[in-house]
Amino acid sequence: MARRKRQPEHENHERWLVSYADFITLLFAFFVVMYSISSVNEGKYRVLSDTLTDAFMTSAQSLEPIQVGEEVRTPDPVAGEYAAPDPGQGVTETPEPPPQAPAVESASLSQIASRLQQAMREFIDKDLVKVTRTDRGVEVEMNSRMLFRSGSAHLATNVLKPLRRVARILRSLPNEIRVEGHTDNVPIATRVFPSNWELSAARAASVVQFLARLGVSPERLAAIGYGEFRPKADNSSESGRRANRRVSIIIMATPHERAAGEIGAAPGRNTQ
């Protein structure tokens, strides 16, 4: 019986399309990933950049700082340390009573500025603090890099010393006291601080709470956050942005001092 002749198989000339389609799909996925990586949030980049700078340029910060809205250890204004909370009380803290405030004494704005300047001399010499007479009273301006980590409202341990010195002077005064927080204009958007407004207000509140724990009458304290909207320098440079990140403690002039014209810069004298 004759064997049937085998027909040759038909060659598929379009098999390359399968490999080509796989390659295009992988290439598309690659570019999507690269695009997502290249989209950097400016606020988060600023926080990372400033944090790395602070880590190399400033001294160690507190591992147990003060944060607005969370339970903290009660500071001992005399020893300069924190008393550990009672473990049996859980999250409920029983703070130690604040130090007894001395009798209220009157002092002129010139005397207040002089006492603050003397108490803060070592920080003034390092360009971390400025004490000035303004049309509102006496202003103690503190650079935020000595107070907080970048993007945080935690008070650092190394700032407790100058704040105690300020509190000792403020405790006996009758003047109203405003604490104002300021930031630069670089946007920030985190879970805790949706904008610079919240960050500046939280920083001011942290300072207010600490002053109150040190015996400054809470009825005379106020915390204000201005965000980036009251800059003192040009935000287009790093030095300007650094100057704008600050917290100011304002000892307000009393009505009597305003009536007597004892506000504004002292003639012929610079208290910075």
UniProtKB/TrEMBL annotation:
Subcellular location: Cell membrane
Residues passing through the membrane, by range: 20-37
Keyword annotations: Cell membrane, Cell projection, Cilium, Flagellum, Membrane, Transmembrane, Transmembrane helix
Gene3D superfamilies reported in the protein's UniProt record: OmpA-like domain
Mode of membrane association: Single-pass membrane protein
Top-level division of the source organism's lineage: Bacteria
Region: Disordered, residue numbers: 76-103
GO cellular component: plasma membrane
CDD domains for the chain: OmpA_C-like (cd07185)
Pfam families: MotB_plug, OmpA
InterPro entries linked: Bact_OuterMem_StrucFunc (IPR050330), MotB-like_N_dom (IPR025713), OmpA-like (IPR006665), OmpA-like_sf (IPR036737)
Broad class of where this protein is predominantly found: membrane
Domain OmpA-like: 135-255
Membership in a protein family: Belongs to the MotB family.
Classification via NCBIfam families: PRK09038.1 (NF006541)
Entry protein name: Flagellar motor protein MotD
Gene name for this UniProt entry: motD
